[in-house]
Each structure stands twice: as C-alpha cells, then as structure tokens.
Amino acid sequence: MVNIHKDGFPVVLGHEAAGIVESVGPGVTEFQPGDKVIPLFLSQCKECRFCKHPKTNIRIDAMSPLDSRFTCKGKKVYQFSGTSTFSEYTVVRQINLTKIDPAAPLDKVCLLSCGICTGYGAAVNTAEVKEGSTCAVFGLGAVGLAAVMGCKNAGAKRIIAVDTNPDKFEKAKVFGANEFVNPKDHDKPISQVLSEMTNGGVDYSLECVGNVEVMVSALESTVQGWGVSVIVGWNMHEFSGQPIKLITGRTWKGALFGGFKSKDGVPEMVKAYMNKKLMVDEFITHNLTLDQINDAIEMMKHGKCIRTVLNVSPQ
C-alpha cells in the first residue's frame, strides 16, 4: 500500500493479474465462487453507447477514481483502476472481470490483463498490420515485444525493433523481430535512419515507450502516402507535430488496451494461448513473491526484466 497525503492516496496499486472468485455479492449473475477470472482495468458493461459501438473499446466509467471498497484501521484506502491487484484479495465489479478457461494457468495468463493485449492488439486491431508489410516497434518492454509478436502473427515481412538497450534485441528475436536499431549508434534522427533502411519509411510504426519525442519520431518514420503510426505508450504531456506530416497521407492513431473490448477480448486471447497460437511464457523473466515487489520494481526501472510475476498466497 502506498501512503501519500493527497487525494487518491493511500492506494492499493496493481492492475495486471488473474485469480479465483472467492465470493460474490448481491446481484452478481455472471460469476460464482471457484471461477477462474482476470480482472480488467478497462470495464465493459455491454449496454452503454460506447460498449455497443463497434469502433471503440473505451467506456465512460461512472465509477469515481476515489470510490473504494477498502478500509484499513477505519480509514479509506483507495482502489486503483477498479482492480487493485497487489493484494491477496480484492473486490471488483462484474463489469471489471471476465471468466476464463478453467484449465488456464493463472501465473501465466495474468499477463493478458494488460501488457500483452495492449501491444499485440495495437498491431493487429489498431494498426491493422498487413501481410508482407514493414513495421517498426519503438520500445522493447513487454508491451513492445507483444507488438512485435502482433506484427509477426499478422504476416509482416520486416519487423524492425528500436531500443536504446541492446540487451533487449535477443528477446525481440524470439517474438519475431528480424532487424534491430539502437538510436545511440547513429548521429542522425532515428526517423531518417529508418527511412533510409526502408526506401522512404515503414508501413507501420508502433510507439511503446510513452515518450512524446519518440511518438513524433515514430510518425516521421512511416512512409508518406499510407504510413500508419500508433501511439501505445502512456503519457499525459502535450505533444505537437507538423501538419504536413499528416496532410501527405500518414495516419496517426492511438490505442488503449490494444483496441480489445475487455470482457470479450481477454478470454479469446487466453484461448489463443491455450491453443499455442500466442506466446506468453516467454515474457516472464522472474517469479517473486508479493513481499518482494520492491525488488521487482527496481529490476523494471533498470531494464533487468521483461515481466516479473508476483505469486500471492492468501492467508
């Protein structure tokens, strides 16, 4: 639990997990104790205007970020993204939960509740990568590697992995990357490097870093006329670009959770994993316990892991 004296704190963090239903409250009809489930930071009610629209997975949520079902020593403890998964137990609404294959291994499919779906879906759902195309993926964390996998499964011919950490390149090969560029190895803008490599620019680029400068570079790396660039990385800062970059035919798009409608899409991704059509185990570099969470965060900050699974055993 984080303890900071501001609105929204203290809060139980965590939003990527899998678990088993312990009990259900009044009015719950979709779940029963013993169900294997994945919590969803992006809810899906299937009834509102947004959930019914085929072109978006966004839902305008009526739940305030300050609403919570948690208390500690008589004081409110806030819930993160409607999930709060860094805990032995959590309480979620049924629109923030989806049932999965009872045979699915929880310590593997937990990754499908955010990172893998986010990157993979950005390639196959949002960019709509086509067979034989050339792609560039900026950032080789779990989200970026999932984007690489999405490009590969969509049939891309050239997949260029871009990262300032060369240690990530071997891992990217596993997921389908066949070319690698470290911006630190060049004295010219990375967009120029990629343009020269691809005779004018890539067909698709995916920014999986969350850096506004990289977002612009990713757009400029795409070919004029039909290039598509997708912003996947999260950032609240303002950014800008030259209108001519879009007027000449490029498309700039954003993706949240890879465009998947959560309650529908996550079980399908679990099914794909169970049918060996999707890699998940390969993302996991470490397994630790919940009380080692600070060690996991330090490894992440220093680029020493891809995904660390925290195993929780309720007392």
TrEMBL record:
Residue ranges occupied by any Alcohol dehydrogenase-like N-terminal domain in the UniProt entry: 7-100
GO cellular component, one term: cytosol
Gene3D superfamilies named in the record: Medium-chain alcohol dehydrogenases, catalytic domain, NAD(P)-binding Rossmann-like Domain
Keyword Lyase: no
Protein name: Enoyl reductase (ER) domain-containing protein
Record family assignment: Belongs to the zinc-containing alcohol dehydrogenase family.
Residue intervals of the Alcohol dehydrogenase-like C-terminal domain: 142-266
Organism: Sphaeramia orbicularis (orbiculate cardinalfish)
PROSITE patterns, alphabetized: ADH_ZINC
InterPro entries per UniProt: ADH-like_C, ADH-like_N, ADH_Zn_CS, GroES-like_sf, NAD(P)-bd_dom_sf
Taxonomy of the source species: Eukaryota, Metazoa, Chordata, Craniata, Vertebrata
UniProt GO molecular function: S-(hydroxymethyl)glutathione dehydrogenase [NAD(P)+] activity; zinc ion binding
Keywords: Metal-binding, Oxidoreductase, Zinc
Gene Ontology process terms (BP): formaldehyde catabolic process
Pfam families: ADH_N (PF08240), ADH_zinc_N (PF00107)
Cofactor: Zn(2+)
